[in-house]
Write a structure and sequence with these properties.
D-Maltodextrin-Binding Protein, domain 2, 9-stranded mixed β-sheet, globular, single chain, 21 helices, 3 domains, 485 residues, alpha/beta
Length: 485
């Protein structure tokens, strides 16, 4: 007892010192503010609310820079390319990952993930490949999956359920009116509703993406291209596109999308993307709407078209399945002066309990702790279609030159579908030429050609010459310090 009494002053001094140290650390944390950059939409607002938990736990304050979707890519890519310091964290589109990784914009997270016990196997495989990896299908991680998303469809469940509409549809098509499972069925339903009077108002069959300026029509037309057989390249021969991008099936698919656009959509929809689709559906113009799942929680709560009036379905199939991947990963910007705090945020966001809160508050988690929960399929009316979609997602090119690749497809698709220029074959043949030029300028097609020539060489001398040329091709891609250009 006397020994304890003697030690009390020392213990008191120790406790005081610890309190002072803790207070100093907390004060330092409270002096820190990090900025997260993303697009301006409902999930971003949900993230603001969720992030209050991070500040409460860490003492690090949060600022947010949200940019409207039409300006998001230009604004954020300009910020990265100029090595700006606005963003400590960025939730960037999946297609940016290649360019951001090779240009040094994002911090590589492998060592951090290993240190903190963050496992990519805890997230849906499609989101890891789509949002985090570069090169694709290689364990090099530049982001944590943040917002799982894909294209899906809404439909007017109340219109579909009207007895008179049901009866007329069955007479015409010898089947019950239901959410379409194939693109043939989709066309039947959309054309059936086109110009029909419902509740005293003229309505139209469907809303489809047609926007020309950024990525809209590409994000739309691919949902028909993929299930009908379009492929970006030969699976066995990278960057070999002839007969895949412009295959007979792909040509048929592009023609089909144009048929839908011409015969099933409201007049004047020549340049519409996400917000125009929401407006068309909310205003009661269309029976079905193409849009990202990220918008469906809000639509389900809409007082005019939500609740019992709305239904959801996954992208229709054809000879196969496929749907355009959406969504983003969260990355630490390499130019940030607050990398440690930004990494703390990533660690916090990856926690299973935070992922569950993220899902509940209006985000869309890619965590298996959420998606594999037995209760998930019935957690919302769009949960099951979302799970179906994540099993068949395909993404656009994520190459460093994706912007040029995207602009080429935007022009070719819009010119044919909306502007009535040329044929589908001419559009896709032209797209192959456009993409070949981009890859040739990048040096990638020449390398593929050299590899094939080397493999097929009929003598050691010829093989050696081809290999030497291949080495030269590779050197063009690197700076003197050994880093990728």
């Amino acid at each position: 007892m006397r020994q304890l009494v003697k030690q009390l002053p020392k213990l008191a001094s120790t406790v005081t010192a610890m309190a002072l140290l803790l207070g100093t650390s907390l004060a330092k944390a409270q002096d820190k503010t990090i900025t997260l950059c993303w697009a301006a939409w409902d999930p971003a607002n949900a993230l603001v609310e969720l992030s209050k938990d991070f500040t409460a736990r860490s003492g690090v304050k949060m600022k947010f820079e949200f940019v409207p979707w039409p300006n998001f890519a230009d604004r954020m890519l300009n910020e990265l390319n100029s090595k700006g310091k606005l963003c400590d964290l960025i939730i960037g589109d999946s297609q940016w990952i290649g360019g951001a990784a090779e240009s040094g914009h994002y911090v590589k997270l492998n060592d951090f993930f290993a240190k903190e016990g963050i496992k990519m196997t805890d997230f849906a495989p499609a989101t890891v490949t789509g949002y985090a990896e570069w090169p694709k299908n290689a364990p090099n991680y530049w982001a944590l999956p943040a917002m799982a998303d894909a294209i899906g469809f809404t439909y007017r469940k109340d219109w579909f359920a009207k007895p008179e509409i049901q009866a007329e549809f069955k007479i015409k098509h010898a089947r019950d009116l239901a959410p379409p499972k194939t693109w043939t069925e989709f066309r039947q339903v959309s054309e059936f509703f086109q110009g029909r009077m419902v509740d005293g108002k003229k309505v139209y069959g469907a809303y489809l993406y047609t926007e020309r300026g950024s990525e809209g029509i590409t994000m739309g037309v691919t949902n028909v291209l993929y299930p009908m057989g379009f492929m970006y390249q030969d699976p066995k021969k990278p960057y070999a596109m002839d007969g895949f991008v412009n295959s007979p099936d792909a040509i048929k698919a592009l023609e089909f999308y144009k048929t839908l656009y011409k015969g099933s959509t409201p007049p004047g929809m020549t340049n519409g993307y996400m917000s125009e689709g929401l407006d068309a559906f909310k205003s009661g113009q269309v029976a079905m709407q193409m849009n990202f799942f990220a918008f469906f929680p809000g639509l389900n709560k809409d007082p005019n078209v939500g609740g019992d009036k709305i239904g959801f379905f996954a992208n229709p199939s054809d000879k196969g399945k496929g749907v355009q991947l959406g969504g983003q990963g969260i990355s630490v910007v390499s130019y940030s002066a607050n990398k440690n705090e930004a990494l703390q945020y990533v660690k916090w966001f990856a926690m299973p309990d935070i992922q569950k809160k993220w899902q509940a508050i209006g985000g869309s988690s890619a965590s298996k702790a959420v998606l594999n929960d037995p209760a998930y399929p019935k957690s919302s009316p769009f949960a099951q279609p979302f799970l179906e979609s994540m099993d068949m997602v395909v993404d656009f090119w994520a190459e460093p030159s994706y912007a040029q690749l995207l602009l080429a497809m935007q022009k070719r698709a819009h010119d044919f579908v909306v502007a009535d220029k040329g044929t589908a074959k001419e559009a896709l043949d032209g797209l192959v030429l456009d993409w070949k030029k981009v890859f040739k300028d990048d040096g990638k097609q020449s390398m593929e050609k050299r590899v094939q020539e080397w493999i097929n060489a009929d003598s050691k001398t010829v093989a050696s010459e081809k290999l030497n040329q291949l080495v030269l091709d590779f050197r063009k891609l690197f700076n003197e310090d050994g880093k990728l250009k």
